[in-house]
Amino acid sequence: MxxxxxxxxxxxxxxxxxxxxxxxxPIGACLVHGERRIVARNTVLSGSDPTGHAEIVxxxxxxxxxxxxxxxxxRLYVTVEPCLMCAAATHYAGIAEVHYGASLADLQxxxxxxxxxxxxxxxxxxxGGLQRDASLALLRAWSERRALR
Amino acid sequence: MxxxxxxxxxxxxxxxxxxxxxxxxPIGACLVHGERRIVARNTVLSGSDPTGHAEIVxxxxxxxxxxxxxxxxxRLYVTVEPCLMCAAATHYAGIAEVHYGASLADLQxxxxxxxxxxxxxxxxxxxGGLQRDASLALLRAWSERRALR
Lengths: 149, 149
Fold this sequence. Notes:
- The structure is a homodimer of 149-residue chains.
- Chain A has helices at residues 3-21, 54-66, 84-93, 104-111, 132-148, and strands at 28-33, 36-41, 75-80, 97-102, 125-127.
- Chain A is of the alpha/beta class.
- In chain A, strands 2-1-3-4-5 form a five-stranded mixed sheet.
- In chain A, helix 1 (3-21) packs parallel to helix 5.
- The radius of gyration of chain A is 14 Å and the shape is globular.
- The termini of chain A are far apart.
- Chain A binds chain B through residues 44-45, 48-51, 56, 59-60, 63-64, 66-71, 83-85, 87-89, 91-94, 114-116, 120-122, and chain B through 44-45, 48-51, 56, 59-60, 63-64, 66-71, 83-85, 87-89, 91-94, 114-116, 120-122.
């Protein structure tokens, strides 16, 4: 893990913590494009948006800021492995690398989401397990809180 | 094809025609939720948004208008079969039925997009071929125009 990897995943985890405080699924992202770092978090509930996963929000924010339809060569750090929707979005955005923490299998154990975790035949290079424990701790806190309701 | 099916696909095709005029990939959508019909078109280029497929734009617009995270029971009419990203989004949105015109195979023949067309194991009921010729004619016009550039 390079200093940059740790730093960018740290920014993504910070977003995930903010999501947890806001009652959202605690998933955060940090998109790196050149010198820019664009952070985002899950906004499904707060934004009334079923597509508001952290990765989608980060990609939309970055492409708006850069006024670009593609973010070729960008790196995306996300606290949980991208779902199919987000994996396809990273492909369309031209993202080169995705670094994630907890896996979809970890998430599925907590949420029961039934969307397959099979990797896409195209798209960015994926690398998992980056600060997985910190990501998992947030997901577990959220899951426990949900169970108490 | 019921009167409603024809009418809703007509609205989606109208959006696809507007997309073509705007220089976008000509794909349009119409989301039906209760009495509401919410239309949208591809905004990838005009909106600098790699996730701006007609289905995603329609889902986001509908969930914002209805202030709802899920659109359970909604029907989505789209001029081209949803890609993986959009299919997963329809699953998350709780959409019950997707009616489409041209198939992903039709689109891939024109664009070369390599994302698999395998249907998801979960998600809405899919029905294809609704006014396929009209949808294909728009895709071909766009493809020919692109080749001239």
